[in-house]
Design brief:
alpha/beta, two-stranded antiparallel ribbon
């Protein structure tokens, strides 16, 4: 069973809504993207000193400004969210959008999201604690969205007492989860709870690796997902496989070839086609941002959106 390759975009929440924000989401729909996502952070990398708006209000506004485009986060994490309050926001988003929301969800990292709500001298969560929290977070959130009345839960990190999320999601049994994972434990979580799996590749290869090494690493992740699904008694073909581009050696600003896949239509088609052969059925590209790692020619970006899918057999 082969799924058609879908092209999606991620629009960073850096634009005032009435000064380019709304226009980008509407243009994403006009261009025919399958979905448009945004990042769910308190602040992020080099964008920390500039405008950065909240993901949930941004997606709510985007839902009201569009009618067909799928919308979602890439990704939400436990770093500054609680499953009970997040579930309430998600059922509202799903209602406003009439069932067009996908929740990208991951374990989170060690950046601003992990420190902003904590005391300056607090010890950071270890990788194991982040993984433990993530597993509990996803398990509880899954219940809250599937069971809209009287969910009680007492875990090591999260508690819920008779939580209610009536009337529940428009999408049944709940809105889809796209679980970001690279290691065995996260892949098992994706196999159990995900309707899709998300990866950016192996981050250790971004600056120093080669496209060939990255491709091999992604193949290993795809194989790991298949193994996790087999262990869970699930057909791996049931899960969408999402590659968020921009973080593999091919996209590095000083990539040794001098040309990134996003710099030409043929280059992008070749990149996407090769990764589709690994099993990826959704490729996500960043909306161009001048003077950043995501700088790109906007006219070429629009050509990729409108022409690449046809060449890839969508």
């Amino acid at each position: 069973m082969t799924s058609p390759l879908r092209l999606s975009t991620v629009i960073l929440p850096i634009h005032r809504w009435h000064d380019g924000g709304r226009a980008r989401w509407q243009r994403a729909e006009e261009l025919g993207f399958h979905a448009a996502y945004t990042y769910d952070h308190l602040a992020w990398r080099s964008f920390r000193d500039g405008p950065w708006f909240g993901a949930v209000p941004t997606l709510t506004a985007a839902a009201a400004a569009t009618s067909r485009l799928r919308l979602g986060t890439l990704v939400t994490s436990p770093n500054f969210r609680h499953p009970v309050t997040l579930a309430k926001e998600l059922i509202t988003l799903d209602d406003v959008s009439d069932g067009r929301i996908t929740l990208g969800i991951g374990a989170g990292g060690t950046g601003f999201d992990a420190t902003t709500l904590r005391a300056p001298d607090a010890e950071p969560w270890t990788p194991r604690e982040r993984a433990d929290r993530f597993a509990e977070f996803v398990t509880l959130l899954d219940r809250l969205l599937r069971e809209p009345a009287d969910v009680s839960f007492a875990g090591d990190f999260y508690t819920a007492t008779e939580a209610r999320n009536l009337p529940g999601c428009v999408q049944r049994e709940r809105l889809p989860f796209a679980v970001a994972a690279t290691g065995p434990r996260g892949l098992r979580l994706a196999a159990r709870h995900g309707q899709a799996w998300v990866t950016t590749g192996n981050p250790k290869l971004y600056a120093e690796g080669t496209p060939e090494e990255s491709y091999a690493a992604l193949r290993g992740q795809v194989d790991g997902l298949a193994k996790a699904c087999a262990e869970s008694g699930r057909d791996v073909r049931e899960l969408g496989k999402v590659l968020l581009t921009g973080f593999t050696p091919d996209f590095h600003p000083v990539h040794r070839s001098g040309r990134r896949p996003i710099d030409s239509l043929d280059g992008f088609v070749d990149f996407a086609g090769r990764h589709a052969e690994l099993g990826f059925d959704e490729i996500v590209v960043h909306w161009p941002i001048p003077d950043s790692d995501f700088a790109a020619d906007e006219k070429l970006f629009e050509r990729i959106a409108t022409e690449a899918a046809g060449q890839l057999g969508r």
